[in-house]
Specification:
237 residues, alpha/beta, seven-stranded mixed beta sheet, two-stranded parallel ribbon, 8 helices, globular, transferase activity
């Protein structure tokens, strides 16, 4: 089976080499019978991310480096998935807060017929280490999505997901937001279209890395998410 793993990055020179190494290790140990492409989608970085990405692509046959001048997490994921056609499409955040031991379950859910599989920090079997502030926003967003869309998915924005080729062909082109809301819209639209969605337990640990600055401004992102939720709710009527 062909699997494409998107790794969206923006100014990640401090973690990119290590993160790609960890992804390759997981792929070789856990998905050894599959053909896997790891696509580093550089979202307009202005540090050494591009240099490191090109070096990794030259050294590792599974790694592809893709440079984008326009920024947007969703844009990067979509470009990476489009770059390497596959049977299963995965994306993970570059900080790898979601442990990659979940990869086989994530992929096997798609093999078994699911349209989308989502890592869930709310799954009873998950173990989670994160700040109280992040947990507060996560619970609030979960409640908002439940009220707005009636979604059965407990952790829509978790940064580890996989989709089928059918969802890639049918649903991804419908997703309008190419920023942070991309994967929320992807989940909601997939669920509304009748695709089966599986939630996968994860080991989640947000470990600060010296020299790395998080791209997430939680209050600003919360306001943007609310705006996008209202927009999507209008469209789905």
């Amino acid at each position: 089976m062909r699997i494409t793993i998107a790794l969206p990055v923006l100014n990640e020179e401090s973690v990119l080499h290590d993160s790609v190494g960890r992804v390759l290790e997981a792929v070789r140990n856990l998905l050894s019978s599959d053909t896997v492409a790891v696509v580093v989608a550089d979202n307009g970085s202005d540090d050494r991310t591009g240099e490191i990405g090109r070096q990794l692509a030259a050294a590792e046959p599974e790694v592809h480096y893709l440079r984008l001048e326009e920024r947007g997490k969703g844009l990067a994921v979509f470009a990476a998935w489009s770059h390497a056609p596959a049977d299963v499409y995965v994306f993970t955040d570059v900080d790898l807060a979601a442990d990659l031991s979940a990869l086989p379950d994530l992929v096997n859910a798609i093999r078994g017929g699911a349209g989308l599989s989502v890592g869930s920090r709310f799954h009873p079997a998950s173990t989670v280490e994160r700040s109280a502030g992040r947990q507060f926003y996560s619970h609030g967003y979960r409640s908002l999505l439940k009220a707005a869309f009636g979604t059965a998915v407990s952790d829509v924005p978790c940064g580890l997901k996989a989709i089928s080729a059918s969802v890639m062909a049918e649903i991804v082109p419908q997703v309008r937001d190419l920023g942070w809301f991309f994967d929320t819209e992807l989940v909601v639209r997939s669920e509304r279209a009748g695709f089966e969605v599986h939630e996968i337990p994860v080991r989640w640990c947000e470990t600060p890395v010296p020299g790395r600055v998080s791209k997430v401004n939680a209050p600003k992102l919360a306001a943007e998410y609310l705006r996008q939720v209202l927009r999507l709710k209008r469209e789905l009527k």
